[in-house]
Amino acid sequence: MASIIFYEKPGCRNNARQKDLLRVAGHTLEVRDLLSAAWSAETLRPFFGERPVAEWFNRAAPRVKSGEVIPEVLDAGQALALMLADPLLIRRPLMESGGRRMAGFEPERVKIWIPLPVAGYPEIGMTAPESCRRPSPCPFPDQQMGMSADQPPVPTPS
User: Fold this and answer.
1) Which residues contact residue 99 at a Cβ distance below 8 angstroms, ignoring those fewer than 6 apart?
2) Which residue, among 6, 134, 119, 122, has the nearest Cα to 61 in the 3D structure?
3) Which pTM does this prediction carry?
4) How far apart are CA 21 and CA 2, in angstroms?
5) Of 18, 1, 8, 11, nearest in space to 124 by CA
6) Three-state secondary structure along 142-157?
7) Can you point out the beta strands (E) in the chain?
8) Is position 12 annotated as part of the catalytic site?
9) CA–CA separation, 42 vs 82, rounded Å?
10) Is 103 within 8 Å of 12 (Cβ atoms)?
C-alpha cells in the first residue's frame, strides 16, 4: 500500500473521515497541518495539476461562501496569491505520494492513483467524502480548542 503525506485542516471532521478511509484501505499517512505549512506558489501549484483554477478552491471557505472570493474570475497567479495569504481557501486535503500530488478527495480520482475501494463507507460515516456536513463554516483550530486568538497553539502530534 501507499505512504501518503496528507495535508489537513486540524479538527476538520471531513478530513478525519478521509484519513479513516485511507487507513482502512491499508495506506500509511504522514499527517501535516495545511494551515501552518510554509507554502509558496511553487510548492502549492503542483497539487492542482491540470484542473481549472475554480476547482482549486475550498467551496466551504467563509470567503468563498460569502462571495468575497469568486474562484471563477481568477487566474492562476491571483488564486495562488489569495491561497498563500489565506490557506482556508485551499481545497482539502492536499495529498502527496510516489511523486504525485492531488487536491481534494474524490474517490474515483483517488483510486486511479492509489488502491481505494469506492463503494461507500457507512462504517466510518462517509458517503460523500468531499462534502462538508456542517451547516456553518468550521471554526479555526484555536476556536475549536477553546483558545483565544492571542494564545499560542497547542502542538498536535504528527
Assistant:
1) none
2) 134
3) 0.77
4) 13
5) 18
6) HHHCCCCCCCCCCCCC
7) 3-8, 28-33, 94-97, 100-103
8) yes
9) 14
10) no
Q: How many residues does the chain have?
A: 158
What is the DSSP pairing of strand 28-33 with strand 3-8? parallel
pLDDT at 126 over 60: no
How far is Cα 158 from Cα 124, in angstroms, rounded to an integer? 21
Do 15 and 33 form a contact (C-beta atoms < 8 A)?
Answer: no
Three-state DSSP at 46 gives helix
The per-residue pLDDT for 151 is 34
From 4, 9, 12, 105, active-site residue: 12
Q: What are phi and psi for residue 117, nearest 5 degrees?
A: -70, 145
The answer to whether residue 121 scores a pLDDT higher than 90 is no
pLDDT at 132: 59
User: What cell does 145 get?
Assistant: 480548542
Place of cell 502530534: 157
